[in-house]
Design goal:
The chain is mainly β and 389 residues long. It has a single domain, classed as Porin (Beta Barrel), CATH 2.40.160.10. 8% of the residues lie in helices and 49% in strands. A 16-stranded antiparallel barrel has the order 1-3-4-5-6-7-8-9-10-11-12-13-14-15-16-19. β7 and β8 form a beta hairpin. The longest helix has 21 residues. It is globular, with a radius of gyration of 23 Å.
């Protein structure tokens, strides 16, 4: 009888564990993207670079995500995502262990999703996915990534709401707390966006705002970007001179349409780096950017694309940047692909130098790579491999 009782109890416990496991799931996932690249004018002396350039189409990452069914259509969800450089093994996003994402929340099919933690902002969630960056990464991105086209920044200490999908329409809002006692309005971040995606047509747009805390009066001007709710957005010489900005405001819109084997897309953004009495630059800087791309699915395995980006600075400086990009991606399987991407950029006018604070001749800097060309033109070519797991 004792043996029977113990066996029955063991079976009951195993059954209960199986039922609990069926209601909970945890997934390990990741992307490894490594490439060999060539950059002309890769530093201030205009010297060439040849070596490993990684995270091109997709940033290197690994993560855990999961959910628990709470009943009544309600789920608890979480996600932890680490960024790294596959060439060196170093952590990304300033050395954070889970610098790409780290959040927990509740999700319901009828009322939407609320999450808290370190997260992507609504422009990244809803607009970026229908731009060339979704297919080709940084080589097709805005010069200097001045409008966060390539997701250079993430937001911390945030609460985010994502609505249910209403026949293709969805909206999202985010607020990032500064965590500064007695200074709630300093260092905060907020953003909102909406998208419509139904059939061959996708449209999205939104606005992002983040602010930099004041410094003590005795300290004088700011030394850089110190917001507790938003990462820095300074990837090279194009906007490094505005790290002391009081706030950054970015408005973005995009449209994409698929016609047979072709996908055509375009986007517009306005990024403003606003000053105050603690800033080291004289006038508000504005960037107006137009992007366009055409993709062609040549075969089920081969995707090719071309893109063009026009960027115009005004207010504090008067630089103009023209950039043409090309790419080809060949899928070996659903998880593994080989790619080749390249871009050429030409700059003219003036930009503000971060070291001296003075206007200088504009220098080219492709995407979010941050290479200081020291010249008014720059080229880049990368051949790489990407594996998803």
């Amino acid at each position: 009888m004792k043996r029977f009782a113990l066996t029955s109890l063991s079976l009951a416990l195993l059954g209960a564990a199986g039922a609990a496991q069926a209601q909970t799931s945890v997934t390990l996932y990741g992307v490894i993207d490594a490439g060999l690249g060539y950059v002309s004018n890769a530093n201030a002396n205009g010297q060439k670079l040849f070596g490993m350039i990684n995270g091109n189409l997709s940033g290197d990452r690994w993560g855990l995500k999961g959910q628990e069914d709470l009943g009544g259509g309600l789920k608890a969800i979480f996600q932890l995502e680490n960024g790294f450089d596959v060439g060196t093994g170093r952590l990304g996003q300033g050395g954070r262990e889970f610098g790409r994402q780290a959040f927990v929340g509740l999700s319901g099919a009828q009322w939407g999703t609320v999450t808290l933690g370190r997260q992507y902002d609504p422009l990244v969630d809803m607009v970026q996915g229908i731009t060339a960056d979704n297919y080709w990464g940084a080589v097709f991105a805005t010069p200097g990534d001045v409008d966060n086209y390539d997701n250079s920044l993430r937001t911390s200490n945030t609460v985010k709401y994502v609505s249910p999908n209403f026949a293709g329409f969805q909206f999202e809002g985010l607020y990032g707390f500064s965590g500064l006692a007695g200074a709630t309005g300093q260092g905060q971040t907020w953003s909102g966006a909406a998208t419509y995606n139904n059939g061959p047509l996708a449209i999205a747009g939104g606005y992002f705002f983040t602010s930099n805390p004041n410094t003590p009066l005795a300290a004088g001007a700011r030394t850089g970007w110190n917001s507790p709710s938003s990462d820095p957005l300074f990837d090279g010489p194009i906007n490094n001179g505005y790290a002391s900005a009081h706030s950054i405001g970015i408005a973005r819109g995009a449209i994409q349409y698929s016609i047979g084997a072709f996908t055509v897309g375009g986007s517009y953004s306005n990024a403003q780096y606003r000053r105050d009495g603690f800033s080291t630059f004289a006038s508000n800087e504005k960037f107006n950017i137009g992007n366009g791309f055409v993709n062609f699915q040549a075969t089920p395995a081969l995707l090719v694309g071309v893109g063009y980006t026009y960027s115009k600075a005004s207010g504090d400086t008067s630089a103009t940047y023209h950039q043409a990009s090309v790419g080809a991606d060949y899928s070996l399987s659903k998880r593994t692909d080989l790619y080749a991407v390249g871009a050429y950029q030409h700059a003219s006018g003036t930009q503000r130098d971060a070291a001296t604070g003075a206007p200088v001749a504009a220098q080219a800097s492709i995407g979010s790579y941050g290479y200081e060309s020291g010249r008014n033109h720059q080229g880049i070519v990368i051949i790489g491999m990407r594996h998803k797991f």
